[in-house]
Amino acid sequence: MPLTLAQEPHLSSARSAWIAAPFLGLLLALSALIGSATGALATPQQAPNSRVILDLPAGFTPSPMFSGFQNDATGTSFVILEAPGTEYDKMAQGFTAEELAKRGVTGAKTAALSRTDKHLYMRAEQSSPAGDYAKFFVLFQAGDQTILISANVPAQALEDGTVKVEDIERVLSTAKTTEKPAVRELYTLSELGPFKEAGTIVGTSKLYTLDGRIEPERAGETRSAFMVAPSLDKRPVANPDAQVVTLLGSLPGYRDFKPGEPREISIDGLSGYEVEADAVDTDDDKPVHLYQALLLGRDGGYYRLIGIATLPDTDGLAAQFPKIAKSFALTH
User: Whole-number mean pLDDT of the chain?
Assistant: First the structure.
């Protein structure tokens, strides 16, 4: 079973990803893999919104929420992150036991994987309120791309033999890329205000900035932004009025978090809550205004719409964020 909402690293690390190192902060993109018998026949599948192809056994389907695959019977999935080929060395620096331990991933060790390209493969463990997990990471270069595939397996599934390490490694060893992505837009924003689409940060999570760039012109610069991030699974959300506040407060890099009262909303037929908050940016000690809408998926899961307004944009963008959120619409 995938991790709980508050522990999805693609959101908790997204702020550092677009402020300083756009891909290093995404090293722990949540995923899980494979409840299949050893030797099961595999079929090549191209991940949605991705150039990556994996040979997967029966039971895996493209995820409707993120770039990767999931097995609903076992609650496991693959999540894929693609970056420019030049990012390989920078991302590889994050694959040490010390760096992963800072993110709650323990016991990390390098291991061998049957690949002939430039790659790094690691096994690790992670504990969470949802249970204990075995984690598997492979980082490799493929032409003009750097690919990170993260697998997350419930420890119990390994212990009882439902999932086998050799099956995981067999699938990871087949990962390759093709020339064109399998594009599938999950949602649109018809109103962006002053923002421009900057790019995809993990699968189907998109970032919007005032200049349309993911990276700032100056290292360490804190910028205003808007982000849409679907959940990595379809787990029902309990107490969304409380979760909308908790999740906004879990964004790293802020202190003195002061939320307002959550408001019930409905956007494109999806119910949910929105909340605003004031905080102080820990990088430069300047005030920021935060916004979040948490929309519940039609058949589980959720969509987070997050706004971050820095000085001198705070007042103007605070009024824009709810308008942008209200223009959200699913495409399927």
Answer: 82
